[in-house]
Automatic annotation (TrEMBL):
GO terms for biological process: apoptotic process; regulation of apoptotic process. Residues 12-90 form the CIDE-N domain. Coiled coil: none annotated. Keywords: Apoptosis. This is CIDE-N domain-containing protein. The lineage of its organism: Eukaryota, Metazoa, Ecdysozoa, Arthropoda, Hexapoda.
Length: 189
């Protein structure tokens, strides 16, 4: 008889580490069954009972969906609690913050998604800024870091991102103007 089965039968339970999608909230939970784990994880993570929950292995996203598989888990396995439609992503690919910008016009939803996605992508690797197009650079250079401060605590990052975006946008526009001048020059020859 393995240790987990023995613990389940004696009622002692097995200790697990439970994390949320961002991996920032970490809790210890002792459970005897998958349902027991879900109840205790909800309680520790402060999740309402009416929100759908899915348990996956933190390391690779394998879903733990029955007691048979759950009973094979080793002590102190790290499990991730996903809510609603959240999907597992590897570390480093996760959005740390969700940026929401209010836009009065009909293009607002598109702008919200674009800005949030751009900031998340660039937060992982700022060198990608050099590959952005004019519209993306304009969106970033026009953002207001002050209005995003309550959502994105790293105001310095937002200010540096805005400044760098403005620089790259200016350089792209200068390059385009230079190309147009060259075309005019060659056309006049």
């Amino acid at each position: 008889m393995d240790q987990n089965t023995e613990n389940s039968q004696t009622g002692n339970g097995v200790p697990f580490k439970v994390v949320d999608l961002t991996r920032e909230k970490r809790k210890g939970v002792v459970a005897t069954t998958l349902q027991d784990l879900i109840v205790r994880a909800r309680d520790k993570m402060g999740l309402p009972k009416d929100i759908p929950v899915k348990i996956v292995l933190e390391q690779d996203g394998t879903e733990v969906d029955d007691d048979e598989y759950f009973s094979t888990m080793e002590r102190n396995t790290t499990l991730m609690v996903l809510i609603n439609d959240q999907r597992w992503l590897p570390p480093g690919k996760l959005p740390r913050y969700q940026i929401i910008v209010d836009e009065p016009d009909s293009s607002g939803m598109h702008t919200k998604r674009n800005l949030g996605g751009l900031v998340e992508r660039l937060q992982g690797d700022l060198t990608h800024i050099s590959m952005l197009g004019g519209k993306d650079l304009e969106l970033l250079s026009d953002m207001d870091p002050e209005s995003l401060a309550d959502i994105m605590p790293d105001k310095t990052f937002l200010e540096q991102l805005k400044e760098a975006s403005g620089r790259f946008l200016s350089e792209k526009r200068q390059a385009q103007e230079a190309m147009e001048l060259l075309k005019l020059y060659h056309a006049s020859q």
